[in-house]
Amino acid sequence: MRILKFYSTNIGKKIVVAVTGAIMLGFLLLHVYGNFHVYFGEAKIDEYSLWLREMGKHLFGVGGMLWIIRVIVGGALVLHVITVAQLIARNRAARPVGYRKTSRRKRIIVGTTMAISGLFILFFLIFHILQFTTGTLQPTPFHESNGIGLVYINLYEAFHVWWIALFYVTAVAMVGFHVYHGAWSFFQTLGWNNPDRNQMFRLTAAALGIGLFVGFASVPILFWSDVLPAPDAPTAEVQPIDEEPLAWN
Ligand code: HEM
User: Fold this and answer.
1) Residue 158 neighbours by CB under 8 Å, 6+ apart
2) Gap between the Cα atoms of 239 and 46, Å rounded
3) Domain 2-224 belongs to what architecture?
4) Which end of the chain, N or C, is more open, meaning fewer C-beta atoms within 10 Å of its C-beta?
5) 149 by DSSP, 3-state: which?
6) Whole-prediction pTM value?
7) Is any atom of ligand 1 closer than 6 Å to the C-beta of 142?
8) How far apart are the CA of 113 and the centre of ligand 1, in A?
9) Cα–Cα distance between 137 and 128 in angstroms, integer?
10) For the chain, what are the domain ranges?
11) What does the pLDDT look like over 144-183, one tens digit per residue?
């Protein structure tokens, strides 16, 4: 098949890495937007979490749209990781020669940092979903209503534990770096880079990386420093917006 033949080429793989990275970047931007509801109070973020389950329910049922997004973003993540691993293996086998020494050293440093930050992010992601979505890992108690985590109180309690707050800030710093370098490579892979535009691309990549870092890190930092208030009623249950049973998580 033509598409598989294209995927087997180096440029095909680089485009797959770029496109799957862009899908995940879209998810991160939506996630950071979703997190901002926390600044408008407990009710707002918990309602937003219910809305995530209810969006598109007339077409796909309650939770259906969320599952479609999970499959797309999860599929992009798997393809991204597999394809990056294949590219690294190919680069190693090819043992590139001919780069100037400094340029080669720089590539190795950046490549290693991308691999380490990528692995750290994967580890963080598993911990994060088990902590706040499924409630399987409970370094602090997982509060839920109708099988869905009560976001505000869960965040409040978690981020008052110093090592959890620090772990999250470290992880999102890795995300910021990964996105900065990934976005910059994306422009190069697509062949859009040239000396006139490079400055703009660097700035765009930096704005994305720093913007995501600040947006994400603000949540643990503001909870930990008590800028965000305690939940109104720690044991209060949030009722679903309608009567239909909600799908798991
Ligand atoms: C400090 C930063 C972050 C906070 C406070 C945060 C908070 C949350 C919360 C509360 C949930 C559960 C939402 C719900 O069930 O309604 C969640 C889910 C999730 N988060 Fe984060 N998150 C952060 C950073 C990240 C980052 C950096 C990533 C990706 C690298 C990420 C990926 C996810 C994923 C994949 C889910 C599961 C979505 C689902 O399937 O329902 N989060 N996050």
Assistant:
1) 131, 132, 139, 140, 164, 165
2) 10
3) Up-down Bundle (1.20)
4) N
5) strand
6) 0.90
7) no
8) 23
9) 9
10) 2-224
11) 988 899 999 999 999 999 999 999 999 999 999 999 999 9
